[in-house]
Write a structure and sequence with these properties.
The complex is a heterodimer.
Chain A (H helix, E strand, L loop, with lengths): L3 E4 L2 E5 L4 E7 L6 E7 L6 E7 L4 E4 L2 E6 L4 E6 L8 E7 L8 E2 L3 E6 L1
Parallel strand pairs in A: 2-11
Antiparallel strand pairs in A: 1-3, 3-8, 4-5, 4-9, 6-7, 7-8, 9-10, 9-11
Chain B lengths: L3 E4 L2 E4 L5 E7 L5 E8 L3 E8 L6 E2 L7 E4 L4 E6 L8 E8 L9 E2 L3 E5 L1
Parallel strand pairs in B: 2-11
Antiparallel strand pairs in B: 1-3, 3-8, 4-5, 4-9, 5-6, 7-8, 9-10, 9-11
The chains are: A mainly beta, B mainly beta.
């Protein structure tokens, strides 16, 4: 059973545009939601994360929003740059056993 | 910053072959993980460990064994490799009990089973 569902599977945006990735989950015990960024040939790396006590977290051009009632979260990238081209993974964790459940990823291409 | 290294970076074997993937982390993290990454499936957890001698089963453990020999070293063993195990394998580590549950990933091992 897929614990974390992510969409879209792939996305192309123009440089300077806004990218929006979405994610949903089912397990109410999840309370930690990280987003990982992966460039070709590298392992994933933490981009931004949010706890369920918050509804928004911002880090430069990257903002993640969390909706506990709807069990949904999103990642917004403003002023998207070609260097943002990567695969983005939404993830969720109950924080009780150090397990993180990953979505299937979104492959983002930012065209100049 | 945590450092996680994996070896080999690339491996080709034949069906029925015996393969060992190695992972070492140098920041004394408690937890270590083995994932496989396949197109359309994201990252799937194979096995993980919270210390030397400990092993926990992940979501896709069939056909894999793992062993955590020290705090630093975690091995993934494929004793009878099959073509379905052709994949990109990642090791990761994290530090339990901290405010952050960030997992630090290695660079990956690409395994091809012919």
């Amino acid at each position: 059973q897929q614990q974390v569902r992510q969409s879209p599977q792939s996305l192309t945006v123009w440089e300077g545009g806004t990218t929006v990735l979405t994610c949903s989950y089912e397990d109410s015990t999840f309370n930690y939601f990280p987003w990982y960024q992966q460039f070709p040939g590298e392992g994933p790396a933490l981009l931004i994360s949010i706890l369920s006590v918050s509804d928004k977290k911002e880090d430069g051009r990257f903002t993640t929003f969390f909706n506990k009632r709807e069990k949904k979260l999103s990642l917004h990238i403003i002023d998207s740059q070609p260097g943002d081209s990567a695969t983005y993974f939404c993830a969720a964790s109950p924080n009780s056993n150090n397990r993180i459940f990953f979505g299937d990823g979104t492959q983002l291409v930012v065209k100049p | 910053e945590a450092a996680v290294t994996q070896s080999p970076r690339n491996k080709v074997t034949v069906t029925g072959g015996n393969v060992t993937l190695s992972c070492r982390q140098t920041n004394s993290h408690n937890y270590m993980y083995w994932y496989r990454q396949d197109t359309g499936h994201g990252l799937r957890l194979i096995h993980y460990s919270y210390g030397a001698g400990n092993l926990q089963i992940g979501d896709v453990p069939d056909g894999y064994k793992a062993t955590r020999t020290t705090q630093e070293d975690f091995f993934l063993l494929l004793e009878l490799a099959s073509p379905s195990q052709t994949s990109l394998y990642f090791c990761a580590s994290s530090d339990a009990g901290q405010s952050s549950y960030e997992q630090y990933f290695g660079p990956g091992t690409r395994l091809t089973v012919l």
